[in-house]
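Journal club prep — side note

Before the paper discussion, L.F. wants everyone to see what a predicted structure for a comparable chain looks like in token form. Sequence:
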Amino acid sequence: MDKEGLDLRAFNMYGGFNQAGDEYHILNTKTPVPWCNVMANERFGTIVSSYGTVYSYYKNSQSFKISNWCNDWISFKQGETFEGIYDKNYNLVYGFGYSKVKQEDDDVEKEMDIFVSSDEDIKLHRIMLKNVSKDKKVVSISYCIDAVMGVVKDVNRNYVLSKKTDNAIEIKNPYSLEFSNCIAYITALANSKECKIEYLPNEYKVSVSVELEREEQAEFTIILGCTENIEDINRIQEKYSTVEDIKSEYDKTIDYWRRLVVKKMKLEDEYLNILANGWLLYQTIVCRLFARSGFYQSGGAIGYRDQLQDTLALISTWPDKTRQQIILNASKQFEQGDVLHWWHEHSGAGIRTYFSDDYLWLPYVLSEYVNRTGDISVLNEKTPYLEDKPMNGNREVYDVYKNIDKYDTVYEHAKKAINYALTRVNDKNGLLKIGDGDWNDGFSNIRGESVWLTFFMISVLNKFIYLANMKFEYELVKEYEDKIEELKKSLLENAWDTDHFVRAFFENGEILGSYANKECKVDLISQAWAVIAMVEDKTLHDRLEKCLETADKYLVDRKLGIVKLLYPAFNNAEKNNPGYIRAYVPGIRENGGQYTHAAVWLSKAYFEINNYKKGEEILKMINPISHSDTKEKADVYMVEPYVVAADIYSNDEHPGRGGWTWYTGSSGWLYKVIEDYLADNKK
């Protein structure tokens, strides 16, 4: 064991947290899979890993990759490579907004700080060298990108052009439909005359060589940037022309992120305390809101429900961002009340679907925001609608959707979403139609009604009544109160099965989530949201307690430390096909694995009924640090200990293995639940 490991918390022979909990040190970079750090601002970002640099992008992480993105951890190929540093026997330190590479070879100490400026579209590699031998040394460091300048290397690479200027390599793709005016550039900045810089434009490579006397040190910086204004390159070179300039930018970046994400909660559990005081907010902001990319997925798009939920976590810490997201999302609504499922902000292209929960997250988040902040001005902000492009019999349509010259207040947009949802109630059983999926996209073929969505509708109405009262819409308040009682009555009469609530009804009227099923007898989110939505009704207390007991019995696996989304998994036994969820192997992702998003909701449900012991138990169980604080655990879990995984497998061949990390909405929900129920020991 490296001596440094003795000073690290939750050390697992690969790495551990420093004593403050705000850095993760990787001492053995042969991690089971790449352990990553995401660094980004709202336009530019990069991902690095224990296996090397993953890639960098500009403006949109899916549509305009500067360097090549690879998510194959078995035959991983770096999008950006170094020679002379970050190439052998290196250690890593990950922090909020920065990564450090530490390496020593041939009696030369090497350290590199990698960070993305908070307000410039650049990534800086600040490299420091020290000769600790008795002899003079010539040290060379090279940096090379596998240029893409588009979506996919195989499609775009043949169109990439590069040239050398006096002190940079400029790279562009003039044939790109949306980014032809974007210029990526690589430049090296060194104060010492002893540093020799060589640019190799055909290889997209820069090399820096320096001669070091005994005990001598040197420092220089390699910058990767992108711009639509050629004059920016000279401006950046002048702005960061000295060592002090680079150091100042580094300090500013660290300070920017610390102010955004580092909190001072005092939680009783050590591991929850580490996550809640930096890592959860960092994951939510840098990955979900800024980069919208990770090692396992490079999406780039803004998800209507996804980013609204992410900003729930920011209401008390960055309320302006929540407000901004609410207003933006309101402008992505059609006049009838439905919305884009996701869209690319740079082009306006997005997808219109029959998903049934997207639009309801607007009134949910708006109500929560106003209730928590008291900011009623957001209700009167006016935003436009989208042009109506009919579905024409298609289940989804991808197109460019522009705003029309018709505006409504955010409040009216939210009300329209609610009223549209209420038109989609089945007259026979009084439940809301599922469309092509509700929160669970995998239920794409059910086409009947969603029990979970009906619970969610009740919760939305309960929250929105607060706003309707503020607007003096007392008739609307009465209408919504009556509707809540109707929906509750429909659920209790049609959706209760012995000791739990079922999940959905197929179009033919058959049930999903019942003991009569061979697959998916019990589904987690119906139980969790039954409690969240109806906890105020004291007459239902025993029934709500019972459905949580059933969830605990069938879905909480204390041996693996996971909470399954449903039980048992789909394995083609049923005649009714629920959708593409069956494409997943049993016990993987939504198909019977832990979907952490939902597991957090179970914890929330326990807190709602004041069962803090069970609520905290679930949070401790799903905490990634708990799955990786020894080498034995880390080798099973495989993925990063410091960020939340979207899913954990219950599959017999890979029990307890983490799925994709970073790019998951569960980080924001986990923070919010901790903040709402445990911060300052709220018990």
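L.F.'s comment for the group: The chain has a mean pLDDT of 95. Keep this in mind when we get to the figures.
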